[in-house]
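Suppose a colleague, Dr. K., hands you the sequence of a protein chain of 405 amino acids and asks what its three-dimensional shape might be. Before reaching for any lab equipment, you can write down a predicted structure in token form. Begin with the sequence itself:
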Amino acid sequence: MTNSRVNSHIVRLVTVALLTLGSASYAADPLQPSAVAELKILEPPIVIPALRLGIFDLHPQVSAGVTYDDNIALSATGELADWIWTVTPHLAAIADNTTDGYGTLLTLEYGPSFQTFTQHSRDDTVDHHANLAASWAGAKLSLALTQTFDQTKTGVIEVGQRLQQREYATILTSKYKLGERTSVELNPRLTISETDGLIGSKEYGVDAFLNRLVTSKITGSVGGSYGYIDATDGSIQTYQRALGRVTYALSGKVEAEASAGGEWREFHGDRSATLTPVLGIGGAYRPFEGTTITLEAHRRDEVSAAFSDENYTASGVTLGLFQRVLDRLHVTLTGSYENRDYHPAATGVTAVRNDNIYTGRAGIGANLGRHWTVDIFYQYTKDDTNIPDRRFTDNQFGVVGTWKL
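The predicted structure, expressed as tokens, is then:
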């Protein structure tokens, strides 16, 4: 396999990772642009030929590490501290049958994560991440299907407990070129969210855009979304969005996408409809070789998993920095803020909660030869809510080693 072929596969693997990391609920939602992902994905990949099995190139890796967490449940009272030992094998299989961007691409990905607690063995768990992504690109029409499944047991901010969460996301995307500079998109999606002991939901949505290539670097779009949300405990909700979108891409330098507009949300009960501004911004800027700065901002409505017939407006921003040092070392810094303002989704409901969530993370890592990397990190989280018995702080520090082929 030639180096150019290897590089091509790694680029596609990183692209799939960018699309599937983060919250699966918003993987295709225009209010959650995919231009920004975890900074670790932005590290320069180590170019090593993959294993071959039939039509698939295989990319195995395994990570192992330990984290000290002084508040494993994100609780305001009775904080529990523990050492968490984690082993995560991971395999991605890629079948690439594309030429100059046309053809088919299939990716299968699975990674269980085995977590063991030193003192609180009742919290021992196996998390799961699975992804199937298939795409076909022709001269005018492009189609893609993504199916993800994530199961994690983690601290839930709304209730201050460590609970198991499951999320299934099905995303269909389609784009048809009307001309050299104009195209249309139609992207249906389904997300199923479940949390043990809390409120689950199903969201059916579809997004449609008319795109126009303004310059070689800028694409402008107008369109909208329709969504239907059915919660296991609460009223049915529907929403319609009118959106404008701008995408900017300067190869190797800047990638940015911004969607903004208004959302009209209706509640199937006596609650009056609401009209609110919404937005989603994501971007990555590489001013120098080895330096990447990322920005993410959002404002959108969410269904509460803890309180029946309540929603909250999530408004937040995340800023990140990745810096490569001395070729083999890298430093990452991220900081984020999110406000969650609760409001009723049915008549007779009083919603008073307002959260201000701050998170900061710092890490340093090193490439130890062709196959090994090691990362050390510290993370601080604080929820300064107006509900005194829900305020918490959490400190984590840990080390993770990764082997990959």
